[in-house]
Specification:
heterodimer, A: 372 residues, alpha/beta, Rossmann fold, five-stranded parallel sheet, globular, B: 838 residues, alpha+beta, C8orf32 fold, 3 domains, six-stranded antiparallel sheet
């Protein structure tokens, strides 16, 4: 596990690891509050604690754990999609447990009603008033299990909450707590009697992760440790929800240069222009891609985003939003392979008009001086 | 192709559109494109129209210039309008092409088209006729050609296409510098055809237009490369001056340093004669080229009944006024049909000699027909031919001399010195043109003529005095010295130079004698054709004559000689050129030094020819001609040339290394004040270094990934012989670059100061680059090291890209219609499929 992480976190580079103080420049744009940003060392320690805690529960899935944390810090929602029994729900529950915050879990079934998710106004006999009974969505982390088993009606009830961080019942809007994150799981194999998520809903999840089977050693270890009791019971919260809010604020302060913005946009445009895709990445996905890249940069202890950060989250963020062309699908391409091939051809802006290659490079934009 | 320059709103665009737009862009559209299309179109039109000025002299007069001007401006205007309407670049080019077709139709085929400008079937028919006519003109006529409709049509069409090409290069392809190619394509024609080359005015106009194109493209669509940091750099002017000066120096010095620049392919300095023996040019001009051509093209074979091979005469030159002499065709007075010809003057000699000559012209192409003087009749010709009663020159009406086999009957009086001496009666019965002395004769010509002929009374004596003077040892035959002296060709000023330098070839000798004879009152003209040829060893049987010896001549035998008129005897040829031709018996009287009789043509000039060993015993010393001059030059020049050549080779071999080193030092010498630039420049240098050592960064590779690959590849030392210093230097260069390129700008937040302080500790970028370079050197194999130093791939790739850039641009441009075609085909196919299913 440890060696695995070293390849992604590059200790050899003396990066600018100092985060700016909480000067209050950026706040949370969603609820208007301005939690103090966490400084770099505390941020690093907190993220290490969370990841270590998750990794003691789920063996050999450090990458998935890190992506889940990235999504949390980027204020996105996570879709876990894999065959049954690889630990989707376990990951979601572990992540929720490591943080000292409210957690609710909804097991989606075909007969689940929207009001079960959002809440309902009930007539109180005693006070003779309608009283709002909050639904399952009123929690910091909402685990939606087997989300594709619920009807479209119920799924769409979740939509408003996910996008706007609020619930509207009987014409009254209720704000949700921050941080707020939906971790949904779904099973792609057994599709009988399910309602596959429509594109609009898939687009609201920041990232989709496939867990994948663990490797041999991890599986053996899992058999040993998980024999008697569930390891989940041993997990205690390692950070508070205030800590998470401060971490989110720190992520928001990560600097994104013009070059990286243009790289991100050109990646999005490339998916829209690709002949292999019927539907490319939406502008919203660009926003989420950049947010995820910012969280990645922060997790690596940097106060600015590199193209590498964008590349590292691009597959997870984009793959579930794009739709393959029929021909590409028939030739065995997958959304992941298409994104990989697009990334392999996409020029990375890294020269300040140093090379005379007028041809292949997109015009302009490599020069920061125009942007200041 | 979508990079329309209008999008770049440069710093000056607003101002210029205020200054330039009001007259040209009448209705301000919501999205203004500014004055750019109009100014650019004007620049292109001026450049092309200016370059077209140089065609005066290739085409006679100026009548052709008006249609050219209309075509050029209409095409440029059409493209400007389309561009102002923001049409796609491809459509702009297409529109220009359509405008060209319309204006050409309107100018040339108004009566044969729909509505006066839309081409129809009739137009195509006419077009074919015009093109045939143009091709005949090109093949057969000498320059300057008469501007007939065919040739003007072709000129207009070509210039219109050049406008489209120049415009396409300058605007959508954004290669304004390359657009000069189109202008050069125009200038090459007069440079090759005209003796005065392009001419200063045309060159200045073309250059001005070209500079305007460059200025416009820089003004409206500044290149990133030049605006980034050099625009305000005061070194820019110095660099420009240096580059220009070096280019000029190389242009001037290279011809001196490269041996053989004035012979072989470049017979006249840099003036080419790609047509070989084809004399669709002024024969007087091409003569020098023909003589200098080493191969000998345009072989003509002939067999004659005369005892000696005759001179073959093509054309005469009789007007000695003006800068450049050329044959006067006298087209109005020409008579068609060469079955019977007549000299038109009276011959009183007792004995006339008749000759029959069968000539095969082979691939010799000329409007004029070579024939021995004076032809009575010519039989066996294909096509229609006409003859000039005044000069008996034979010219094709609708054909040329290529692949003609014909038999010439010629008659000439048997001349003797006595006969010629007796011809003292006043000249009459010939045109004034042959008698009138030229205007503005240089003093040296007149004084020389008077000195030489002093003491001679009769015309014949004067002629002999002039001939003997020119054949005297004072004069040397040389094909080279007029070129070096700058007076190749003909004309009175050239003649004066010749008499001063006393060195030249047949043109100079013949014209000197002809002009001096006229000054002395003897009618004269210059005949241009071929000196007597060599025997091929074979025989040809001619009907009525039996087997005759066959002779051959080629371009090396091209010759000019004077003809003087003697009353009662007609035009008499003389031979003032030493070592060439054959001095006729009647002109060889009392003459010694030059090897009177059979100087078996020009064997001494052409070493490859089988030399005649028993060469004229009465020649004590061969005339100091080309050979001796060449010998004298060799001992000194050869090592000089060798050294210069070696130097050039060494320079070429070392240039990639020099370029690479220069690039490196320029990048690393950046002022430390611009810290951002330093990191980026050092990063560019690191990329190039890695490229040189075979680890080229990919286009889609992030800096961090590339850095990791470089450190992990073993190029900086593998795990066993780890070179931490190199890897550390790479890592810190990467970090610097990343922070500079992607990190917050200084002053963004207070946190940036801390990160800047962290980066200040490591050594300077130049030192780190040096460490990396040393490490790469140490851990690479010798072959790779050698290549990295002498043929660095980073430089070679860049040059390769530069060379292929135009082709790639063309390919990109071509891909657009191809894609459109593929798209529409898909649409059609899908539609058909749907139709079949539904």
């Amino acid at each position: 596990m440890d060696s695995h992480r070293r390849t992604t976190v590059d200790e050899a580079l003396p990066d600018g690891q100092v985060f700016p103080d909480s000067a209050g420049v950026a706040g949370n744009p969603l609820n208007g509050t301005r939690p103090p940003a966490m400084d770099a060392e505390a941020f690093h320690a907190a993220s290490e604690r969370i990841l270590t805690a998750i990794n003691t529960v789920i063996d050999g899935k450090a990458e998935a754990a890190k992506l889940a944390l990235t999504v949390l810090l980027a204020q996105g929602h996570l879709l876990l999609e894999d065959v049954p029994g690889v630990g989707k729900t376990l990951l979601a529950k572990t992540l929720a447990r490591t943080i000292d915050c409210s957690v609710s879990r909804i097991q989606f079934t075909p007969d689940l009603l929207p009001s079960d998710v959002t809440g309902v106004s009930i007539y109180n006999q005693a006070s003779r008033l309608f009283e709002f009974r909050p639904g399952a969505v009123f929690a910091n982390i909402v685990i939606g299990d087997e989300i594709n088993r619920a009807s479209a009606k119920t799924q769409s009830a979740l939509l408003e909450c996910m996008e706007e961080h609020q619930v509207t019942v009987d014409g009254h809007s209720y704000k949700l707590d921050e941080p707020f994150m939906v971790v949904a799981t779904q099973n792609p194999i057994e599709m009988e009697g399910t309602y596959p998520l429509p594109e609009a809903q898939r687009d609201r999840f920041m990232a989709r992760i496939s867990m994948g089977y663990p490797d041999k050693d991890s599986e053996i270890e899992m058999l040993e440790t998980h024999q008697a009791t569930s390891p989940l019971t041993r997990v205690t919260a390692v950070v508070t929800s205030a800590d998470v809010a401060a971490m989110i604020a720190a992520v928001q302060r990560v600097y994104v240069s013009q070059a990286v913005k243009e790289f991100t946009v050109s990646l999005g445009r490339a998916t829209r222009e690709s002949a292999m895709l019927r539907l490319g990445a939406s502008p919203r996905s660009m926003l989420q891609l950049l947010r995820a890249a910012k969280a990645t940069a922060a997790l690596e202890g940097r106060n600015f985003v590199l193209p590498d950060d964008v590349v590292s989250v691009a597959e997870a963020v984009l793959a579930h939003r794009i739709i393959l062309d029929r021909k590409a699908a028939s030739t065995g391409e997958t959304p992941h392979s298409v994104i990989r091939s697009i990334l392999a051809k996409l020029p990375v802006p890294q020269e300040m008009s140093a090379a005379p290659s007028r041809g292949g490079r997109p015009r302009g934009g490599t020069d920061l001086r125009h942007t200041r | 192709m979508t990079m329309t320059p209008q999008r770049h709103s440069g710093p000056g665009t607003g101002r210029t559109s205020e200054v330039l737009a009001p007259s040209t862009a009448p209705a301000p559209r919501p999205r203004r494109v500014g004055a750019h299309p109009w100014v650019m179109a004007a620049a292109v039109a001026i450049a092309v129209a200016g370059a077209a000025l140089s065609l005066n002299g290739v085409l006679r007069g100026w009548a052709w210039y008006l249609p050219v001007l209309t075509t050029v401006f209409v095409v440029a205007l059409a493209m400007a309008v389309l561009r102002a309407l923001r049409a796609q670049p491809f459509l702009v080019a297409l529109g220009g092409f359509a405008a060209l077709v319309f204006i050409l139709t309107f100018t040339f085929f108004r009566r044969f088209s729909i509505a006066g400008f839309i081409p129809s079937g009739d137009t195509m028919e006419q077009l074919g006729r015009y093109l045939r006519r143009a091709s005949e003109t090109v093949l057969a006529e000498s320059s300057p050609v008469a501007p007939n409709a065919g040739i003007v049509l072709v000129t207009c069409a070509v210039l219109g296409l050049v406008v489209i090409l120049v415009d396409a290069l300058a605007v959508p392809l954004a290669l304004p510098a390359t657009s000069g190619l189109g202008l050069v394509a125009i200038l090459v024609v007069p440079a090759m055809v005209k003796p005065q080359s392009v001419g200063p005015w045309a060159f200045a106009a073309a250059a001005a237009g070209y500079l305007m194109i460059l200025a416009c493209s820089q003004w409206f669509a500044p290149a990133d490369r030049t605006t980034a940091d050099t625009a305000r750099n005061p070194g820019q002017f110095r660099r420009a001056a240096l580059t220009g000066g070096m280019a000029l120096a190389i242009t001037l010095l290279l011809p001196l340093a490269v041996p053989g620049f004035d012979q072989g392919t470049f017979p006249q300095g840099s003036r080419l004669n790609p047509w070989g023996s084809s004399t669709g040019l002024n024969p007087m001009i091409s003569l020098g080229n023909s003589l200098r051509s080493p191969a000998g093209d345009g072989r003509i074979t002939y067999a004659t009944s005369a005892s000696r091979p005759p001179y073959l005469r093509s054309v005469t030159v009789d007007r000695f006024d003006g800068d450049s002499w050329s044959p006067d065709d006298r087209d109005p007075s020409r008579r068609v049909g060469v079955g019977r010809m007549d000299t038109g003057y009276e011959i009183v000699a007792d004995e006339q000699v008749r000759q029959v000559t069968a000539i095969n012209t082979g691939r010799f192409t000329s409007p004029y027909l070579p024939a021995p003087y004076a032809p009575d009749s010519v039989n066996g010709l294909a096509g229609r031919w006409s003859w000039d009663p005044a000069t008996l020159s034979i010219k094709g009406v609708d054909t040329n001399s290529r692949n003609q086999q014909y038999v010439v009957q010629s008659t000439a009086p048997r001349l003797t010195p006595e006969l010629l001496s007796q011809s003292t009666t006043a000249v009459r019965g010939i045109s004034e043109e042959f008698i009138r002395p030229p205007n503005n004769v240089p003093d040296i010509v007149r004084s020389t003529a008077d000195t030489v002929t002093a003491g001679s009374s009769t015309a014949y004596a004067k002629a002999m005095a002039i001939q003997n003077y020119l054949r005297s040892v004072e004069f040397t035959y040389s094909l080279q010295s007029p070129v070096q002296g700058g007076y190749d060709g003909n004309g009175l000023s050239v003649l004066a130079d010749f008499l001063t330098q006393k060195s030249g070839y047949c043109i100079h000798f013949a014209s000197a004698m002809a002009v001096m004879a006229r000054l002395e009152g003897i009618p004269s003209r210059i005949a241009v054709g071929y000196a007597p040829g060599r025997s091929t060893g074979g025989t040809v049987s001619v009907p009525g004559q039996g087997a005759l010896t066959e002779y051959e001549v080629d371009s090396r035998d091209a010759h000019a000689w004077p003809e003087l008129y003697f009353q009662g005897l007609g035009w008499v040829a003389f031979e003032p050129t030493p070592s060439r031709g054959m001095v006729p018996d009647y002109a060889a009287q009392a003459f010694t030094p030059g090897g009177a009789g059979t100087n078996e043509n020009n064997d001494d000039l052409i070493p490859s020819n089988a030399a005649t060993p028993g060469a004229t015993p009465e020649t004590p010393a061969p005339l100091p001609g080309l050979d001796s001059a060449g010998e004298a030059g060799h001992p000194l020049t050869l090592p000089l040339y060798g050294a210069a050549g070696l130097l050039v080779v060494a320079l070429i071999a070392a240039s990639p290394r020099m370029v690479r080193t220069g690039l490196r030092s320029r990048r690393l010498r950046r002022a430390p004040s611009s810290a951002g630039n330093t990191a980026a420049a050092a990063w560019a240098e690191l990329r190039d270094l890695a490229t040189d050592y075979g680890l080229a960064p990919g286009l889609s590779e992030t800096p961090r990934h590339f850095s990791g690959r470089l450190r992990g590849s073993g190029a900086l030392g593998g795990p066993d012989n780890a070179d931490d210093a190199g890897a550390r230097a790479v890592a810190s260069l990467t970090a610097d670059f990343e922070r500079q390129q992607y990190g917050p700008p200084p002053g963004h937040t207070d946190g940036a100061a801390a990160s800047g302080a962290a980066g200040a500790a490591p050594p300077s970028a130049a030192d780190r680059i040096a460490v990396v370079q040393a490490s790469l050197r140490r851990h690479s194999r010798p072959a790779r090291r050698l290549r990295a130093e002498w043929l660095p791939p980073s430089v070679m790739n860049r040059w390769g890209r530069m060379v292929t850039a135009p082709f790639r641009a063309i390919a990109r441009a071509a891909a657009i219609p191809a894609q459109a075609a593929a798209r529409s085909w898909r649409t059609v196919r899908d539609g058909l499929r749907r139709l079949r299913q539904g």
